[in-house]
Amino acid sequence: MKEKLKKIIKTKQFKNMTVLTLFIFIVEILFKILGNTFTFDYTILRIFISSLIIGYLVSLILNFIKHNWINRTIIILISLTVSVYAMLQLGFNNFIGNYVSVNTSSQLGKVTDYINDYFMSFNIKFYLILIPFILLIVYYIFIDKKLKVEEYKFDNPKFIYNISVLVILCGIYYSTLLIGFMQNKYQSIENKELFKSPAVQSIAINQFGVSTFGILDVKNYILGIDYDVDINYTVEDKVEVDKVKERKIDDSKWEDVISSEENSTYNDLNNYFISRNITPTNDYTGLFEGKNLILIMMESVNNIAVTNEEYFPTLYKLYNEGWAWTNNYSPRSSCATGNNEFSALTSIYAINTMCSANVYRDNTYYESLFNVFKNNGYTPLSFHDYTDYYYDRHIIHPNLGSTYYGVVDLGIEYSNEYKEWPSDVSFIEKSYDIFSKEDNFAVLLTTVTTHQPYYRSSTYGDMYLDDFKDLNVHTYLKRYMSKMKVLDQALALLLEKLENDGKLDDTVIVMFGDHYPYGLANSVLQPMFDYDISVNSEVDRTPFIIYNSELEPKKFDEYTTYMNIFPTLANLFDLDYDPRLYLGEDLFDDNYSNIAVFPDGSWQSPYAFYDSNKMKLSYITEEYEYTDDEIKRINDLISTKINISKSAIKSNYFEYLGNKLNGS
Q1: Global confidence as pTM
Q2: Does 470 reside within a domain?
Q3: What are the residue ranges of helices labelled H in 124-277?
Q4: Domain range enclosing 215
Q5: Whether residue 367 sits in one domain with residue 219
Q6: pLDDT in tens, 577-587
Q7: Does residue 458 sit in the same domain as residue 571?
């Protein structure tokens, strides 16, 4: 037996298997360490088994290739691919706060514009993941040729033996997906479902490793495999409602739809939404009834904009003279601007692995912000000072219920060159001339001047550099702030025009950032903050402002995101709407959950931050301690909302429901 084992160890197959297995496993461990997600748990065992399976399979195939140099070349190419892929995923997670899926390939040709920005923000430590590859090359140059190995001569028994070993290894691996103790206790998606479709990238990479995730991601993209929403969804606890504040909604039509519906997907969604709590009215209901709305999604604006009166007086004024939420976040995703705009207008979660609004551009949403305001007597209009190069807004926005104007429609000068963006001042001038003519308007303005890049010269990036010459910060940050000064001037112009036309008192201005300024590393941004932006998701903290000239200034400390904008506005404007159709919440509801939810399932509350990458809870205060059951329930509720949103988008559910309820 020992002699037989020695013979096996001395074979080319065993050598190739050992080299590749160890290489992949070491890269996986480095990936976790460099990504700050390493924990010593059973996932390490699962990742080692998957590394062994890959190594065994490749070495088995290489047995059919006699030339050693071809064997070495194939192993080197596989190793290089694994290393570069892992390194790029680390960079993308650092850059956009999320791992990348091939499902976003529809944007690939467009985001090549961002490559320089991506590498400018790249943490130098990520290059350490190339060390195993360098050592592999050294091994092949100086050591491999000195090792005497024998060809593994194949015959039927040996082939059957190898296949049997491979099948056993795969069986062991599959069992790790089913065994309870090998799944994190806070995990909402079962590993076997996640393996079938790694739709939550951070959890999939944590559980399976970056190499296996890459294989599964490509496989699912090619085959179009997806996981189904679990019909055993988790719903909110029922709450008692004051009869005086209760919203009366007649569900008889909806119940008839459910009783006659044969499509299981639609009925799962019907039963979920109809079973949710109907948020009651509150002391803020109708405060803005009859007023106009201007909703502004500010490109790449973070809290630097609202904490520096000297540089950005208008943003500072709006933040400090209106209502402002100090714990607002604009979570990043693989398609942040488009996905976050979509979620703000619908209050449903975008599909995290793709540009949802683009991919499902033909969907319609009868319950969107535009349509609900339209049904309440407003004229919905939306404007953006760029083209449809990144997002198909000329299709998306009308399907959300608005009349849309892009940069060409507005007659604004623009450049196709990535580094140059149009002026938000011109944007306000042109768009105001259109929407101000309406008696009651609900308007979305999506700005662009503050867009990256910041690492190279541009018209607006250089325009106000002298204003920041005394600041001891990086030039990249000064260029960002120079661009933001243009946005500040645009907002000043908007206020001036509204006041001159006597519309300021009758207009509510709501502002939020789409995401933090990509392309600026934390180390570049940090000097402008008095808190550590590198911990948890603090870099994603952005302004959320509601301003009206008649409001008493107030700061709110609830934790929130763009998901809660429309439910809050619908209540403030006292619109006729069904709160159950929105997966965000009214910020003024007495039962508001006070949690900011991130696209990967992470969340932040006043007490703790749950990191779905690490599947770990980190407390930020000692005031409250969650039980394991509470953490699991929060995760289940979040997972349900994300999955329900995904199913609703993919099935065009809201078009179906709107047609059914309206008799179409």
Answers
A1: 0.91
A2: yes
A3: 131-142, 156-178, 191-196, 201-208, 210-223, 252-260, 264-274
A4: 2-223
A5: no
A6: 999 999 999 99
A7: yes
